[in-house]
């Protein structure tokens, strides 16, 4: 594909450019401490507010209650036991003392620093749920970079301790943490501190060592790279909807997260024809194709780009005809 240099360069830039903050890679230190972290939130969506943040590292415990800025969803309240009444936060009907968001964030960071100069954050479903919420929370308080400089990465315990179809932490705890020392904990599951302690118990029960937790880590840099890709996908996907009739939803998502837009595809077809589409989709980045080398998919995308351009040209011609007709009548 000679002559495709500028196209390939644009493809690579669209794929690797990260507008979001991406922390530097940091090596794993010998003194890296695992810290179990959990949150209770106003709902189960990515934009949820934290109402209870807790962490456990060896014998050290941390927790902070925060007054949410949004209403607690009834289903979340039913699961967690948290509610708001008369501008006070209640847990299982009892008022709990809250601190400001700024205070909670600073206290959380101070606690993590007290554990070690480098930490590994561990949690059940933490990569998909808790970590993004904690990161947004710390970012809003201006402490994101400090958190990232301290954190080697995140380890999700679901694949490590799930037993067949049983993956929920409270179900695992009730099934395997059966000693009398655990009986009082089961009634308060979904309290963040309680959940941290239960998870520690489960890790000990299944003999999951710190070495295993560290070996299964998604590094902080990798986590933010994934976040940047998802953000890019979210931004680009709407522009690619004209191609949803010619490729699968999965392929459409792959195109979006790799920086492709409908304007780029139309432009490359207009200038280079099918070879331009091939360059956009096949260009090798880090030893892998940007999107695909599948000839059927490339042909489908090419046909769609051609139809879009043809349709736009027809629309422009009709528009010009109408303008000329209106000009003649006047």
Brief characterization of the structure:
It comes from Microctonus aethiopoides. By secondary structure, this protein is α+β, with helices and mostly antiparallel strands. It is 52% helix and 15% strand.
Q: Please name the CATH topology of the largest domain.
A: Nucleotidyltransferase, domain 5
E-strand count: 11
Order of helices and strands: HEEEHEEEHEHHEHHHHHEHHHHEEH
Q: What would you say the CATH architecture of the largest domain is?
A: 2-Layer Sandwich
Rg result: 26 Å
Give the number of domains.
2
The largest sheet, given as strand count, sense and whether it forms a barrel, is:
6 strands, mixed
Q: Percentage of helical residues?
A: 40-55%
Measured by DSSP, the beta-strand proportion falls in: 15-25%
Average pLDDT across residues? 88
Structural class by helix and strand composition: alpha+beta
CATH class of the largest domain: Alpha Beta
């Amino acid at each position: 594909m000679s002559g495709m240099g500028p196209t390939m360069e644009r493809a690579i830039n669209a794929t690797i450019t990260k507008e979001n903050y991406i922390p530097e890679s940091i090596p794993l230190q010998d003194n890296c401490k695992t810290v179990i972290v959990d949150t209770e939130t106003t709902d189960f969506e990515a934009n949820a507010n934290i109402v209870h943040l807790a962490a456990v590292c060896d014998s050290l415990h941390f927790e902070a209650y925060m007054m949410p800025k949004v209403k607690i969803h009834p289903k979340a309240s039913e699961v967690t036991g948290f509610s708001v009444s008369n501008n006070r936060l209640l847990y299982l009907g009892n008022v709990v003392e809250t601190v400001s968001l700024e205070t909670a964030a600073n206290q959380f960071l101070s606690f993590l620093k007290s554990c070690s100069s480098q930490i590994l954050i561990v949690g059940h479903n933490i990569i998909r749920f808790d970590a993004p919420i904690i990161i947004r929370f710390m970012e809003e308080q201006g402490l994101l970079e400090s958190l990232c400089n301290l954190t080697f990465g995140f380890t999700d315990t679901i694949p490590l301790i799930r037993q067949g179809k049983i993956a929920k932490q409270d179900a695992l705890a009730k099934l395997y943490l059966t000693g009398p020392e655990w009986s009082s904990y089961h009634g308060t599951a979904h309290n963040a501190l309680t959940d941290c302690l239960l998870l520690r118990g489960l890790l000990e029960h299944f003999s999951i060592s710190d070495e295993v937790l560290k070996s299964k880590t998604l590094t902080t840099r990798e986590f933010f790279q994934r976040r940047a890709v998802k953000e890019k996908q979210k931004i680009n996907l709407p522009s690619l909807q004209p191609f949803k009739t010619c490729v699968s939803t999965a392929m459409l998502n792959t195109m979006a997260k790799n920086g492709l837009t409908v304007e780029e595809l139309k432009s490359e077809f207009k200038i280079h024809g099918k070879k331009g589409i091939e360059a956009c989709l096949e260009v090798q980045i880090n030893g892998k194709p940007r999107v695909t080398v599948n000839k059927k998919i490339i042909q489908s995308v090419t046909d769609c780009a051609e139809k879009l351009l043809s349709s736009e040209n027809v629309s422009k011609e009709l528009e010009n005809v109408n303008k000329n007709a209106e000009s003649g009548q006047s």
